[in-house]
Please model this.
Amino acid sequence: MKSWKWPKHSILIIAILATWIKTAIVYRTSFEFDLENGMQKFILFINPLSFLLFAYGLSLFFKTEKARNRWIIGTSILLSIVLFGNVAFYRFFNDFITLPVLFQTSNFGELGTSVAEILNLKDLLYFIDVFIILIAVKYIPKLGSSYSVRKNVRRAYFVLALAVLFLNLGLAETERPQLLTRSFDRELLVKNIGTYNYHLYDIYIQSKSSAQRALADGSELVEVDNYVQANQAAVNEDMFGKYKGRNLIVIQLESLQNFVLQNDMNGYEVTPFLNSLIHDKDTYYFSNFYHQTGLGKTSDAEFILENSLFGLDRGAVFFTHSGNTFNSMSEKLGKNGYYTSVMHANNKSFWNRDMMYQSLKMQKFYDITYYDVNDENSVNWGLKDIPFFEQSADLLAEQPQPFYTRMITLTNHFPFTLDEEDKMIPEYNSNSGTLNRYFQTVRYMDEALKVFFEELKEKGLYDNSIIVMYGDHYGISENHNKAMAQYLGKDEITPYDTALLQSVPLFIHIPGSGDGHVIDKVGGQMDLRPTILHLLGIDTSNDMQLGADLFSDEHEDFVIFRDGRFVTDKYVYAEETCYDRATGEEVDIQGCKPYIERAQKELEYSDKIINGDLLRFYDEETGNLLSDAVK
Ligand code: GP9
Ligand code: MN
Model:
């Protein structure tokens, strides 16, 4: 290490420090991150460092000092442009740049006219590190003769850079588990891994998708189309179009599993309102209905509902394929004269909703900015469900009719915290605080639904609507098996139990129908789209969908989970084991075999459609394949 002296690398060190400090200041002054604790502040502070060490450190591979300095200056200019680009974008859109947005020119239509308004002279400060580096290069004495950097110095340097990266990722993982695998929110990504790393990650995700897309062609759709056509379930003539023209309200209930319904917790009824609906003459309650989501959780549930296709086995399709062509339920309803909207009081960029909703042809997204959210009316993830529904009812009333509006609740979300005044039942008494609190937040959500139904009646929107409600995904993971076993009065939770616990409630409430009853057919979220559209009299026979109408006599008792598990009326298949549905006993795999293959096939077809963006080759009006050259 004799030849390694500080002064030799002062430009490099100055560059790293200058850009690091500048970025840290920009984070705090130009973006609005909500930082909940000291650790989050610390992560935000250190997160630019790993990337800067790498980016500027590449200069160490150049042989001459001049070339090294050029690299450093060039890098600082480029990074400043990237950071400033994000600042300018954020001023306008309150979001971070993602690659697809750069190619969606419609986003910039509005921006063009207001560039002057959002830029000013002070913005030169965003390039301050470039000036500092230029001054340093000019005034720090040159070492004269060219020298190259020793290999072991370089190695030590990059080991350090890697260590910083892992420290950053490790801390981020503790703050936000599964941040990278689930990639839920740009803001969270930037907050945890930094803008520069975020862009690399974004480029990686987007280029992977576009490579698969480029290699795909329309002929791949033929096989899928044949399968879809062969598996269609004939519509139920009595139900088809029976409620044509009604408003459609779909409520996606956060983390609601079926096991809390028609059940009590230490003598307290957990869902009194939903339980009353089960016996209501205007409600179809599906008692054997399952979520089919993967890592994309809430967004997967939305995706499945809209498209009757699966999410992906890795990441969230809302992020990875938001630029695809779809034939969503909102698009179809839009074409049939419906005004379509989503109401959800969260940042619009969460789950990339702002981008994805454009592809799903959702006409309006009432995000957090449409709600009055303050300290009093929020808890946990944000606006409480009761004020959410109250405010949403006002928004609903202003919409043109008929409308299709989807609402997404938030209070019953992990870690299931509530303000004292909203706790309507006590906690449960197990070793899992999560499960203990879950009953309370579910109870609160149940109350919120009751309030919402009242609001609908008051606003005169009730009689002319269909209200569909379903749980988006599980709320209690397998980490709480011991507590679950205690609650359910079992010795242990087996893979068979876990599969059945993926059951979520589905209610189709149709005021005035009079024909409501409990339906125990096995079904899943994939079936929602055809079921709903048929009630409204909209044909889906040409649609590339994998679900089937739950009211059809031909609907099969078979639901496939994203990871290949499945449930039928006779079997449960989990962890490569076939169980008898009724008893939970292991049975010969032969019984499950035909379903295993079909489950794999359906998952594979769904992935093919999404990864290849195959619906761009399909005309859903006629059911014909378009020639490959189009689009
Ligand atoms: C956030 C909400 C929660 O907007 O939908 O998402 P989840 O963590 O349940 O997937
Ligand atoms: Mn959710």
